[in-house]
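hey can u check if this looks right to u? its 249 residues, i copy pasted from the old doc so theres a chance i mangled smth
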Amino acid sequence: MNQILLLFCAGIVGGVVNAVAGGATLITFPIMLMGGLPPVLANATNAVAIAPGHWLAALADRHKMPPMDRQLIGSLVVAFCAAMVGAVLLLALPNEAFMLPVPALIGFATALFAVAPMLGRWSMHRRASISSKGTLPALILSSLYGGFFGAGLGILLSSVIALSEPQDVRKIKVLKNLIAGSVSLAAVLVFIVKGAVIWAAALPMLIGALLGGYAGGHLTRWLPGWLVRAVVIGTGALMTVFYVCHYWF
């Protein structure tokens, strides 16, 4: 019961964090590990628990939903296929092999989250000199990474989309959530088919994430985004140090 309560509360916190600033995986994935799950199964179970948040976030701002034209469908299909490859690669690794890059992955996602504002501004400035076709390799690599691990995926996708889309922040966020939803769907399907999901851990966190996401939608009105970002970055840095000591030394 203590573990179920911990996962449920982590889901709530993750849902709020995603709604206000993003970066929930930096909170929820370490909690899965703390709950005693092997790293590969923890990653797969965490992906299932937080997947619905992407679709709910896109629907929350459906007025900015782009038309389902050939370009969008193509992007969703490319992201789906690349994410499936990433998920299959993850499950092909033994837990012992996945343990080694875990600290580096958490550290990379934390650093990515920390520089996200600067990365977004860079993308806006560069979009005029980069064609939409030039973003295809970046989309494939981002989706591949999303299927394999996922932390920081939203930041990567936002930067890729900003290279070719008008400077409409709300539209970029909706597109990011749609593509992230496609990535999550592909990974989740692979994880479920392969039996890599620990449902006893996924369901409490999933319920908590849904409640936290709903609450976070209201908290965004008064909860400072910079404060949530600081908490996420601090947590990610601490988790990086902890897992470096745990897995590398």
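The chain has one domain: 2-247.
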